[in-house]
């Protein structure tokens, strides 16, 4: 995961908007496939700069693209980042 400055955070309305977007992506992932493991593996690989993330069908790839864009936001505090990850990955 990219380095995050501990004192930088989005304000609450911005963060709540991201949280809703991540919940929606989680819901969409559940809708398009019963097995979200590949989507999660693709997102995790891309967040950790893996050059060979698992391939995905186009619809799943769009969900993964949006998830990576949100989860990799540099202006998240550590706790905000953890919360978004928990919501998307279902932990």
Describe this entry's structure for a reader.
This protein is mainly α and 91 residues long. It has one domain. The protein has helices at residues 12-32, 37-47, 58-71, 78-89. Helix 1 packs antiparallel against helix 3 (58-71), helix 1 runs parallel beside helix 4 and helix 2 (37-47) crosses helix 3. It is globular, with a radius of gyration of 13 Å.
In short:
The protein is mainly alpha-helical and 91 residues long. It has 4 helices and no strands.
In percent terms, what proportion of residues is strand? under 5%
Number of strands: 0
Average of pLDDT? 88
Order of helices and strands: HHHH
Count up the domains.
Answer: 1
What is the SS-derived class? mainly alpha
**Molecular shape:** globular
Radius of gyration based on Cα positions: 13 Å
Separation of termini? 18 Å
Major pleated sheet:
none
What low-confidence regions span 5 or more consecutive residues with pLDDT below 50?
A: none
Q: Number of DSSP helices?
A: 4
The helical percent reads 55-70%
Write the layout of secondary structure elements.
Layout: H1 12-32, H2 37-47, H3 58-71, H4 78-89
Keywords:
91 residues, mainly alpha, 4 helices, globular
């Amino acid at each position: 995961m990219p380095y995050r400055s501990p004192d930088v955070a989005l304000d609450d309305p911005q963060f709540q908007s991201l949280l809703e977007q991540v919940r929606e992506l989680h819901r969409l992932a559940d809708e398009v496939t019963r097995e979200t493991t590949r989507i999660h593996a693709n997102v995790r690989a891309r967040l950790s700069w893996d050059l060979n993330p698992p391939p995905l069908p186009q619809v799943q790839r769009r969900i993964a693209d949006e998830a990576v864009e949100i989860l990799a936001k540099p202006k998240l505090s550590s706790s905000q980042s953890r919360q978004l990850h928990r919501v998307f990955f279902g932990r």
